[in-house]
Design a protein that fits this description.
Chains A, B, C: Pfam families: Abhydrolase_6. Chains A, B, C: This is Alpha/beta hydrolase. Chains A, B, C: One of its GO terms (molecular function) is hydrolase activity. Chains A, B, C: Keywords: Hydrolase. Three copies of one chain form a homotrimer. The first copy, chain A, has 242 residues and is α/β, with parallel strands linked by helices. Chain A has one domain: 3-Layer(aba) Sandwich (Rossmann fold). The first copy, chain A, is built from nine helices and eight strands. In chain A, the strands form two sheets. Chain A has a six-stranded parallel sheet with strand order 2-1-3-4-7-8, with helices on both faces. A two-stranded antiparallel ribbon of chain A has the order 5-6. In chain A, helix 1 links the parallel strand 1 and strand 2. In chain A, helix 1 packs across helix 9 and helix 2 packs across helix 3. The longest helix of chain A has 14 residues. The termini of chain A are close together. Chains in contact: A-B, A-C, B-C. At the B-C interface, strand 8 of B face helix 5 of C.
């Protein structure tokens, strides 16, 4: 049975970086789309793109392709996006799959779920870069892709693009709590992911906001899309299979 | 060296569902018994069976078979049962092995260790079913057997039986804390078990009530008896081997 | 590329017990030293050796061999030692690797990071043994080497030596917080390590004191140097590779 997956990338990424995982899902017989969210395309205006623009771009993609029964997968910042999409077009979706992704409450921004020292650093970087935020390599290497060797960590870093900071500071509007949506929900927790510190973790702190949800865990860092895409694809299949 | 194991099933189960794990232990040379606890046999009275009846039925089984040096293993609700059995006939036991199982304090019920929203749901179901409690399929599929595919989740669900709710609400009587019992104690934690939410977890919240204990962990859900009995048998062997 | 590793053992151990892991690192092409810390050599005075003596002995070793660009690895109590060494000769080091090891704040002793019931037990044992502390076998078997079988647990226990208790009670002096040191830092967390209870854990409680650090995890107990040295060597390689 062929399922339809839409993979929504995290901050600093585009759909292109989802390709290896998408191929893993396709090898299992599924149809996979990897749109690039508004704000992360090469020519997009980093200063003006906000969270609503990002959400609207994925809504447009799903409606434009007339997709239904979608397994909508969000990674990291992508959790903000898929939460907004689910709030707007739930009828086209079958299940939400969060991969170490933000699960917002109504009125929350991404920055509201992040340790203060990260917010201060993001503020400073965005302030000096026309409201585009980047990630210092040292943090990327140690806390985001700790399971890769140095050459892979560098090669992956070179693919990142400056991220529109308004999508981190805009408050999301949700008509109802995500737990109340009549959709399946899954949370994939990559166990060595320290992009958020384990004292303020992805799971169970954010995952349990989904109410009843299916937990799938796998060994790996925040950036298994680079460091172990086959294993991550397996986890997504277990998260999304029904 | 052949050890003697007695496996005590969880709520809604019978000894029959322990068979695959028991076979794994037998393949390692051990003797394994899988009694069905009072209240879960086909003809048992779900309305009247209480926790003392459940405990007494396993005491009778061990005494009736004249078993000694028993590795007494309890899964989930079975932790209530083996805790009571240990309090009554410790001299026949060698070691207690809890598998994501309840570890009560004197005077506690199972429901005292469970999130309030589960207790409210159990109350409502039991109130409408002559004090027998069942588990909605959606909760079973997402939170109890998250590591299985849907056909296995359904097949396993079809084997469950209505559970006597008094065994969840009765307070256990213990002559001394379990940590004070002069027996070996082990706790097997199946790592993706979300039958209890990870914010109110089996381990270390309940496991550490055992005092000095041996931790064994394995990947899997609350229902590895169905989803991965070979791996669970290996964990039990490591938990019980001395 | 050949890196230089110095492995600093935990309490009750000597450098000899690091040999199997050191061989695993050497097989990957690296140079590995396993000095025995002052206080744990056969003839050392257990009553008088303090934490400063222990730290100074490893400083002397590194300076005496004129080692530079050192990956300095500490296990358990060895975390106290490598923290002091890093504070004194950071210029000779490339990266600190803690393996379920203590990460002290300035003015803290090892005992300050340990549950009160362990401190009380240590006090009693050292009080009766000329200020040398030993570990009861039952605790070793259940909480330190829970992943081994009984013969291995016994054989490993027989290699332990009485430990100078002043190294647990002396407060460390640090010129600056470890997080402020301009060195790479990694933390290897052996996931079934219950030498510290999981309610008062190694990670993230102590690891996050390092500030930005690289997390590497592997399945195993506190004593993987005995129970699974190959797997631990792999984790150290991932922790130390750049």
């Amino acid at each position: 049975m062929s399922d339809t997956y839409v993979l929504v990338h995290g901050a600093w990424h585009t759909g292109a970086e989802m390709a290896a995982v998408a191929d893993g899902l396709r090898a299992a017989g599924h149809t996979v789309h990897c749109p690039t969210v508004a704000g992360n395309n090469p020519g997009d205006n980093r200063a003006s793109t906000g969270l609503d623009d990002a959400i609207a771009s994925v809504v447009r993609f799903i409606e434009g392709q007339d997709l239904t029964q979608v397994r909508l997968v969000g990674h990291s910042y992508g959790g903000m996006v898929i939460s907004g999409v689910a709030d707007r077009i739930a009828a086209r979706l079958r299940r939400l799959v969060y991969i170490n992704a933000f699960v917002p409450l109504d009125g929350e921004s991404l920055n509201d779920m992040v340790p203060p020292h990260y917010v201060a650093m993001f503020d400073a970087i965005a302030g000096a870069n026309s409201n585009a935020v980047t990630l210092p390599f040292e943090i990327w290497r140690e806390a985001f892709i700790n399971d890769a060797d140095l050459p892979l960590a560098r090669a992956a870093y070179d693919k990142l693009n400056p991220h529109p900071y308004r999508t981190f500071t805009d408050k999301i509007q949700l008509k109802q709590p995500l737990a109340a949506l009549a959709l399946g929900k899954s949370y994939v927790n990559c166990q060595q992911d320290t992009a958020l510190p384990h004292s303020l973790p992805w799971h169970p702190r954010l995952s349990e906001r989904l109410g009843l949800f299916r937990l799938v865990e796998c060994p790996g860092s925040h950036e298994m899309f680079f460091s172990n895409p086959q294993r991550l694809a397996q986890a997504i299949l277990e998260a999304g299979r029904d």
